[in-house]
UniProtKB/TrEMBL annotation:
<keyword id="KW-0418">Kinase</keyword>
<dbReference type="InterPro" id="IPR000719">
    <property type="entry name" value="Prot_kinase_dom"/>
</dbReference>
<keyword id="KW-0808">Transferase</keyword>
<dbReference type="GO" id="GO:0004674">
    <property type="term" value="F:protein serine/threonine kinase activity"/>
</dbReference>
<feature type="domain" description="Protein kinase">
    <location>
        <begin position="28"/>
        <end position="287"/>
    </location>
</feature>
<feature type="region of interest" description="Disordered">
    <location>
        <begin position="1"/>
        <end position="23"/>
    </location>
</feature>
<dbReference type="Pfam" id="PF00069">
    <property type="entry name" value="Pkinase"/>
</dbReference>
<feature type="compositionally biased region" description="Basic and acidic residues">
    <location>
        <begin position="1"/>
        <end position="20"/>
    </location>
</feature>
<protein>
    <recommendedName>
        <fullName>non-specific serine/threonine protein kinase</fullName>
        <ecNumber>2.7.11.1</ecNumber>
    </recommendedName>
</protein>
<dbReference type="InterPro" id="IPR011009">
    <property type="entry name" value="Kinase-like_dom_sf"/>
</dbReference>
<dbReference type="GO" id="GO:0005524">
    <property type="term" value="F:ATP binding"/>
</dbReference>
<keyword id="KW-0067">ATP-binding</keyword>
<keyword id="KW-0547">Nucleotide-binding</keyword>
<dbReference type="InterPro" id="IPR050588">
    <property type="entry name" value="WNK_Ser-Thr_kinase"/>
</dbReference>
<keyword id="KW-0723">Serine/threonine-protein kinase</keyword>
Length: 336
């Protein structure tokens, strides 16, 4: 067997079959649908070379055959994903245009637990430390986008476009369908696009830059804390527009009781001229003690102490002896 060939086991017939494979034969798509949006469907797939599960993104181009703007947006997303390399951004390893079936296909990382919005709704009790780790990872991804030459502006950052691997807590930004590139240092964008609840006031003024992503990030943190989509008290887009443009903050902000968290969110929601950049927010004291690397703190107790006859030796003493001076092992838990 040559290197790269696919090994077929005699029991393959009992397993799940591929619905289709890519032109190289490396990737096989299953029928299982992971998610679907207005223009794209995402299926579970398998990378035969790496032996790992991946996401097969498929867009039917038939409905956009006469829409040059949408076609450009679709291919732009793929180009961006192929170019961007960062642990907190969904990566794309392969893409092709199937002219026979009129589909655009591209392979991306698979995030096992879906969107951060769904994940947060599933897990009601989240520690403040975990919230900060999620927030910092989103910021790292944003900073990478904004540091590109030319700058990349996401323009549709919200928790349905942020994904997470539940087994290790890795957060990644995805869905670059509305992303734009600012070709010069002082270039401003003018298209009114995005998800209304997360759109900064200056977008409606049709003159903005990458700081709109920082505003949307603040709204993401607000939703993580409260488990409530910003401006959910509004039942239509017009009401959201009126509140945003008049400077009225979402009702959910009043539900944030932790003053440190509330102050950090408010920093992201100030007027564009005073709003910090993603790089500046990464230096904020809010993230003091939050490592860039994945951490797993394991408390290893001394079994000789567990077997002691000393009836006065309690759990607090055991923990203080076995934390090597790291006393702060109890975290604030947010339960909304």
């Amino acid at each position: 067997m040559k290197h790269g060939d696919v090994c077929h086991d005699s029991s393959d017939e009992d397993g799940e079959k591929f619905v289709e494979t890519d032109p190289t034969g490396r990737y096989g798509r299953y029928g299982e649908l992971l998610g679907a949006g207005a223009v794209k469907k995402v299926y579970k797939a398998f990378d035969n070379r790496q032996g790992t599960e991946v996401a097969w993104n498929q867009v039917s181009l038939r409905r956009f055959a006469d829409d040059d703007a949408m076609m450009g947006r679709l291919f732009n997303e793929v180009k961006l994903l192929m170019a961007l390399k960062n642990d907190n951004i969904i990566s794309c390893s392969h893409a092709w245009n199937d002219s026979k079936n009129m589909t655009l296909n591209f392979i991306t990382q698979i995030c096992t637990s879906g969107s951060l919005r769904d994940y947060r709704m599933k897990h009601r009790r989240v520690s403040l430390r975990t919230l900060k780790k999620w927030a910092k990872q989103i910021l790292v991804g944003l900073n990478h986008l904004h540091s590109q030459q030319p700058r990349v502006i996401h323009r549709d950052l919200n928790l349905s476009n942020v994904f997470i691997d539940g087994h290790n807590g890795r957060v990644r930004i995805g869905d670059f369908g509305l992303a734009a590139v600012a070709k010069s240092k002082n270039e401003v964008l003018r298209s009114v696009v995005g998800t209304p609840e997360f759109m900064a006031p200056e977008i409606y003024e049709e003159k903005y830059d990458e700081k709109v992503d920082v505003y949307a990030f603040g709204m993401c943190v607000l939703e993580i804390v409260t488990r409530e989509v910003p401006y959910s008290e509004c039942d239509n887009v017009v009401k959201i527009f009126k509140k945003v443009t008049s400077g009225v903050k979402p009702r959910a902000l009043g539900a944030v009781k932790d003053l440190e968290v509330k102050k950090f969110i408010e920093k992201c929601l100030v007027a564009a001229a005073a709003r910090p950049t993603a790089a500046q927010l990464l230096e904020d004291p809010f993230f003091d003690g939050i490592s860039d690397e994945d951490e797993s703190f394991v408390l290893c107790l001394d079994f000789s102490m567990l077997m002691t006859d000393d009836k006065n030796c309690n759990l607090k003493q055991l923990m203080s002896k076995n934390t090597n001076g790291h006393g702060a092992i109890v975290d604030v838990v947010l339960s909304h």
